[in-house]
Amino acid sequence: MGKTHKDDHALLQSLVEAHPEPFALIDEHFTIVACNKKYADAYTDLTPDDIVGMKCHEVSHKSTDRCDLNGEECPLERVFESRHPVQVVHQHFDRNRAPYYVNVHGSPIRAQSGGVRYFGEAMAPISRVDDLDFDDERLIGCCPSFVNMLDNLSLVAQTDLPVLIHGETGTGKELAALFLHRKSRRADREFVTIDCTTLSDAMFVAELFGHEAGAFTGAAATRKGLVEVADGGTLFLDEFGEISPEIQTKLLRVLDRGTFRRLGSNRERKANFRLICATNRNLAQRVEAGAFRADLFYRVNSMQITLPALRHRKEDIPQLVDFFLRKLMPANLAPLISDAALEALLRYDFPGNVRELKNTLERAVVVARGGTLEPQHLPAELRHPQPSAKCDDGADCGYHDACADDPGIIRAALARFGGNRRKTAAFLKVSERTLYRRLKALGLT
Ligand SMILES: Nc1ncnc2c1ncn2[C@@H]1O[C@H](COP(=O)(O)OP(=O)(O)OP(=O)(O)O)[C@@H](O)[C@H]1O
Question: Residue limits of the Sigma-54 factor interaction domain (predicted)?
Fold first, then answer.
């Protein structure tokens, strides 16, 4: 190497080493021209000099194919085309070939002529797949919108602020809340869940704040409230949009003052919990309509996380199917699924989201009696999806949203299943809680 070349090389190396994160310079042919030690260590057992000349996808994707040929968006091509920085979420493989998610920040490194000479690639790891794995409860998904949501959850987990998780029924709000808790500094304390739809106001207050012996008829002994059980931990209010104005006021008081009183006691106790709320309602609209307190909404909405509906992340369906089928059976016996059955799942919109997919597979495994899952093992609406079909009675029909809201259909379905709410809810593709709310609104409880 001549002196000038040596100097150039040293200059380039010190520039890439100045990056605090794994960083590489790549030319338009996907060839790495320089990388820092962090990059080399993140993906390989090689030195930066050994890596120069390799293709970027060989190093970070462990693939001879470019990432866009593997279903991902190629940030390099976009930077060379647009000449602007880009950011994408990719799945990379570390030096042990373990997958993990990264935010790829790509920037144009310009030549004197003004054109793009190199693609500068900086990586910010999001979450290791292992980090998402808590016992059997795991948040599955790797499409960009889902991984971005996970990234936000991980960020928010570092803070102690209240969080509002928004998403349609069955999108995994409760699982996301648990994930948040387990990644927070409160992880070794309790995660306490309250379903806001199942308690009357009086019971809600007693459950939340506890009571002294004799506080009301039947209160024979002193009882700690869930706020106390959650001391140092997390309080998760599911279906938060359903709480009454009275409870809204009481909750706001606790959040403002940081104290509460057990029923029948004058003693102020310190509340030390992190609040996570979940709702499938548009709370901002409810505030506008005067049905929800604006001050409470703004208090809990400082951090909002939205879970994408499954129909907006269909690319995650195969991974979810694989996960649920493995959970249903020991690994070596996990049932297979035919391409035609998988295609039927991919064509369907899953109004009940991941919960519906999970229930569908549970049922299909039983119907298939341990054999390969075929389309005939799936419910009729998946075999013949008719998203806009009208159904005016409880007969087996393609799902459409209005079914679960239509009082006539709810009544017909209830009658058809002899009043069994679990079966009725499954038929209407809503959670039992949602059905309960609707029955309550119809005066059918
Ligand atoms: N990304 C995911 N990966 C794996 N399992 C998931 C995922 N999302 C949801 N599930 C599973 O789907 C089911 C429903 O999830 P969960 O109860 O968290 O949804 P939810 O949004 O809180 O529903 P609801 O609004 O009806 O209360 C659970 O069994 C959960 O484990």
Answer: 139-366
Task: Return the exposure string of 178-215: e unless at least 16 CB atoms fall within 10 Å of the residue's CB, then b.
Answer: bbbbbbbebeebbbbbbebbebeeeebbbbbbbbbeeb
Name which CATH class applies to 311-441. mainly alpha
The answer to whether 413 and 424 have CB atoms below 8 angstroms apart is yes
DSSP state of 430: S
CATH number listed for the domain at residues 135-306: 3.40.50.300
* Domain ranges within the chain, ordered by starting residue: 3-127, 135-306, 311-441
Instruction: Indicate whether residue 174 lines ligand 1 (CB < 6 A).
Output: yes
Q: What is the CATH number that goes with domain 3-127?
A: 3.30.450.20
For the stretch 314-357, pLDDT in tens is 888 888 998 888 887 765 566 788 888 988 898 899 999 999 99
User: Which atom of ligand 1 is least distant from the CA of 171?
Assistant: 21
Nearest-CA residue for ligand 1 atom 16 is 172
Residue with structure tokens 């509906």? 309
ipTM of the complex: 0.98
